[in-house]
Amino acid sequence: MEEDYRASSYDYDELFVKSLSLFSISQNHLLLLVLLLFLLLLLFLAFLVFFYNFLEIHFLADLLTAFRGDPVSLTYNPSSQLYKSVASKCRILHGRFLPTPWLSSPHLQTAFLSLVEKSPHVTYKRHMFYATDGGTIALDWLMSSDVKGASCTNDATRENDKTPILIVIPGLTSDSGSAYVKHLVDKMAKHGWNVVVSNHRGLGGISITSDCFYNAGWTEDVRKVIDHIHCQYPEAPLYAVGTSIGANIVVKYLGEDGVNCLLVGAAAVCSPWDLLICDRYINRRLVQKLYDKVLTVGLQGYAQLHESILSRLTDWDGVKKSRSVRDFDNYATRILGKFETVDAYYRRSSCVNFVGNVSVPLLCISAMDDPVCTREAIPWDECRANENIILAVTQHGGHLAYYEGISADSMWWVRAVDEFFDVLQSSPLSNRRKKVEGPSLSIPPESSIDQGPYVNVLEDGMVTAVGNSQEDFIAEDECNEDADHIRKDEDAILQEERSDLLTAKTHSKVDLNQPLDQNLNDLDVPVRRRMDQLLRLNRNSIWLLAYIAIVTTWPLVGSALLPFVKKRFKSIIPSALRRR
């Protein structure tokens, strides 16, 4: 019995040792499994951080601020009557903008606008407008009387032709069926406005009927449409809203027509401002290149709809092989618009060159995180210098999206434009429109780029123009004083010459018996003497022009020569008078 008991106890001990060995092996596997899970967790967290930064998500920042949103930044001229009478009364512009929490990213906002296209139902009435060149433009109307639940804030007894009309200019390859256009049209029509969407040529289901195509700087169609609507509704106040490329066209049109513009007010939403800067920006980062590719595909789809005409007028093989918007503009837009180069097309079509000549109330809305139209192109100083412009910039919003609310049913910029136009329509500024007969004679202002020959690249990559230094302006003012001094003395000499000639003409005795040549020589003596003096002044003027050229080219050299030049030119006229 004892032997059996010892044998069994020995077996139990052996089993216990084996079980311990098995447990140690499984424990090692468990440690390896935990380590593997920890590494996967680290990789997942790294991916989340990369994804968060890549999509520029700001949910955590919104969470830290208790979802209060960011205030809207307003830029305007301190003496602007537009701000005092209109913008100061706009509650939305002085409030905060909070994007939809689950769309806390400019890319999510923009993608949701393009892919989901959540918008109200709108039924248009189409009218065809035929341009003088044979082109066809589809005008899609939505009258306030056709919208259910239209407000009666306006006088119900007034005639229909006195109802304010809003003209909408869509963006690139967009038309009246785009989601953001429907949001705007529905909002304005319900508030008692008549709205018309001017579709670009070849869009809105309309074929191209001429060899003329639209581009980012083509304002003739907008001008003709506005003139056409003004002729149909001569008593109705006209307003315009441009979005993206449409905003560039609207602002350029306002600057070209100046005080002769027929509009009472306008709004530009997410304008590219400077096409050359936006072209550089959209090819800078990977995420921007994705937008560039999407826009290129849209342009190629537009081209394929009108292949029968574009294949004849453009480099069709290049259009089909285009891999960027710049490629498409090189093979199609540049050729159709008769521009020498793509950069020439971008420079001449950018509305930033026409901001200074805008003469009607204009609201500009842009987002700092716009993934297509970069903030680097926003003309802050130009907008501040013009009393007719209010620039509203938000921290977030994406490109034309600005979705707000939990269900993303509303777009912030639509509400802001609606309120701005409503206040403007009821303000004295709405009666400031001048009716001018005949074509506009206003001259577009010079480009602000030409006024700033120097460029400053900041640490964050933004590019700003730097003007001349204060010393240069002082030196230029002193040169102007010297030039004014010479000009006054020249006027004095010319006045004295006129008196001498009059005296010679009165007191000279001309002998009719003498030859005519001899009498003329006697009269020419004082004239020649004055001419010699003027020639000496002209030589000095040439030296003065040479000095001005040196100052503008080499400011330091011009400053060194300034004392000598002042001393020389201040003594020119007195010495000339003494020689008389």
Automatic annotation (TrEMBL):
Q: Which UniProt keywords apply?
A: Membrane, Transmembrane, Transmembrane helix
The answer on whether this UniProt entry bears the keyword Membrane reads yes
Q: Name one GO molecular function term.
A: monoacylglycerol lipase activity
> What Pfam families does the record point to?
Hydrolase_4
Limits of the Serine aminopeptidase S33 domain: 165-378
Task: Tell me the superkingdom of the source.
Answer: Eukaryota
Residues annotated as transmembrane: 30-55, 542-565
UniProt protein name? Serine aminopeptidase S33 domain-containing protein
